[in-house]
């Protein structure tokens, strides 16, 4: 048997030099766009706005957080600073109680007692942007770049040598029509003006991520990332922090959207390709399908990680499921920022282009600039997302982004350095 299907032959031609892919790790993320503040018309400060009954839990949280000796200042001082200029994403009581439920805590104000003052300081400063008064009218809704990168007041302690001192956790603002989102969280009431900034009421609290992408992928949470993890490791030539993809996905100040196929998606692709290869060698269709299914069921992820070890078929498998093929495949599942070929880009499903599919480049474009990339599309009912898809150039149909609600979400899995969108097909670059 010789596996010579077009997919295996042509995809393997996409080669990536290690240095080029390390450029794909966006180590020079843009600063928050300078915005000219509007002249404040309100007389109350942001802290005074929290005296409204609907923000009573948030005010208690702010006061408790302010007992923590933070290097970035007390929240009460910041929010009451008449000379300050802030954008504050404020969860009201309903939003905070909903957030408690999503975290598995009682939907009661007393659940604040589960959090230390330092934890609340970090969480609430992720809701605060300093130095700008960002009203909803300033948020662009032009496809496909549907979110703004902004730096919160949460300074991230350096988890690695790759993280610059004083790096601030980014948050992302986007708009679909008139609906405003921060990350993937809807803004319920925008543009509540204060004398020292603007407040946007959000549907749930914003939880700052605590892991980089590779930590989640390497952990194989729930067995979800087994094949993709194996593809990354073999593409890198082994399990090493210096591997090009592992390094990029581990760098805290990178910015990626990782479209990660499920294990089932990888298995379906392998069965289909092996079946075709066996049929090309003369094996009848039913027998080829049975043999391919048994091969995938018996050896699973080994077909990706060490195909040469498979009895009988090993040499043929290893000749086509090569590190070079997997380099191209992994790169095709990492989105690049529109208008670039190597800089990563964070795309929540609420930022997907609505109605009409729009092509977005991937890291494949770093070596094949003319490649059309991946076609993204979302469908909304009002401001609610009902479906989202990603289609590869070589796929007959679009892959679905697997949608589910938090806390066990399968989409919009936010990380320090990007977001994971799980998909039900492996995307084929050609």
Automatic annotation (TrEMBL):
Signal peptide: none annotated. This is Fasciclin domain-containing protein. InterPro entries: Adhesion/Biosynth-related (IPR050904), FAS1_dom_sf (IPR036378), FAS1_domain (IPR000782). Pfam families: Fasciclin. PROSITE patterns: FAS1, PROKAR_LIPOPROTEIN. It comes from Niabella pedocola. Gene3D superfamilies: FAS1 domain. Residues 42-206, 212-427 form the FAS1 domain. The lineage of its organism: Bacteria, Pseudomonadati, Bacteroidota, Chitinophagia, Chitinophagales.
């Amino acid at each position: 048997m010789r596996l010579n299907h077009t997919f295996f032959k042509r995809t393997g031609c996409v080669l990536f030099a290690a240095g080029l892919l390390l450029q794909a790790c966006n180590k020079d993320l843009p600063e928050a766009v300078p915005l000219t503040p509007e002249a404040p018309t309100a007389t109350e400060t942001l802290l005074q706005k929290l005296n409204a009954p609907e923000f009573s839990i948030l005010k208690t949280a702010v006061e408790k957080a302010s007992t923590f000796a933070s290097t970035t200042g007390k929240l009460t001082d910041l929010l009451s600073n008449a000379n300050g200029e802030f954008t504050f994403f404020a969860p009201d009581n309903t939003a905070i109680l909903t957030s408690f439920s999503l975290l598995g805590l009682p939907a009661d104000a007393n659940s604040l007692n589960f959090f230390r003052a330092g934890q609340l300081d970090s969480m609430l400063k992720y809701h605060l942007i300093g130095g700008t008064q960002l009203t909803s009218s300033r948020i662009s809704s032009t496809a496909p770049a549907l979110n703004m990168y902004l730096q919160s007041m949460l300074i991230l302690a350096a988890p690695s040598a790759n993280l610059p001192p004083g790096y601030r956790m980014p948050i992302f603002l986007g708009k679909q029509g008139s609906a405003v989102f921060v990350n993937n969280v809807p803004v319920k009431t925008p543009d509540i003006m204060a004398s020292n900034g603007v407040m946007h009421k959000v549907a749930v609290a914003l939880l700052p991520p605590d892991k980089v992408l590779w930590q989640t992928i390497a952990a194989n949470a729930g067995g979800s990332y087994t094949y993709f993890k194996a593809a990354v490791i073999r593409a890198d030539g082994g399990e090493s922090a210096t591997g090009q993809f592992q390094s990029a996905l581990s760098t805290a100040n990178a910015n990626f959207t990782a479209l990660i196929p499920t294990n089932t998606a990888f298995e379906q692709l392998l069965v289909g390709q092996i079946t075709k290869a066996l049929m090309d060698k003369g094996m009848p269709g039913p027998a080829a399908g049975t043999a391919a299914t048994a091969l995938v069921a018996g050896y699973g992820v080994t077909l990706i990680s060490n195909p040469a070890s498979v009895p009988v078929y090993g040499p043929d498998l290893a000749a086509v499921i090569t590190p070079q093929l997997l380099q191209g495949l992994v790169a095709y599942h990492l989105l690049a920022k529109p208008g670039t070929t190597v800089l990563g880009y964070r795309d929540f499903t609420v930022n997907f282009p609505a109605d009409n599919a729009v092509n977005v480049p991937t890291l494949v474009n770093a070596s094949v600039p003319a490649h059309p990339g991946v076609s993204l599309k979302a469908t909304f009912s009002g401001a609610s997302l009902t479906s989202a898809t990603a289609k590869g150039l070589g796929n007959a149909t679009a892959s679905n982004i697997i949608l589910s609600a938090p806390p066990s979400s399968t989409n919009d899995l936010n990380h320090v350095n990007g977001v994971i969108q799980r998909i039900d097909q492996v995307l084929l670059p050609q």
